[in-house]
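batch job 7 of whatever, protein = 2Fe-2S ferredoxin-type domain-containing protein
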Amino acid sequence: MYTKRLIRTIVSRMLASDVPSITSQSWSQLKANSTLQVNRFCSSVPKPQKDLVKVTFLLRDGQRQEVKAKVGDNLLDIIVENSVDIDGFGACEGTLACSTCHLIFKQEDYDKIPDKPTDEELDMLDLAFGLTETSRLGCQVIVTKDMDGLEISVPKGVSDARR
Ligand code: FES
């Protein structure tokens, strides 16, 4: 909508200045010129970025790894995108078939996850190593703005339900 308004403004300014009349032939040129000017204008404006929140993973070896997580992404994608080194994590690539993406949350953080686990996730969690009351599968947890500062523990062991 903003871009349409901008194009209209540019076109009307062009009409007022150096383009005396619109003919069917000049219209496509006019449109091309206005698009060019919009692109020039837009390139100097920072593109809206997806919101980012800070998430810290407490790894098996006791190390902490802090990452910037995009709101709307799931934790499996975030771990992959940020190259968080968790051996065997996400073996089924989020198809709810392995339970290797098992993560453990603090109670208050667990309560912030808007989507409750589905029956399929619960079935797979039952096969996870070191299951707790606040366990979730990372591929099923979508990051929200409320999760800024989240600290998530990676279980000491991993079991792949497919084996
Ligand atoms: S990646 Fe396999 S269940 Fe989540």
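notes: The first helix runs from residue 2 to 16.
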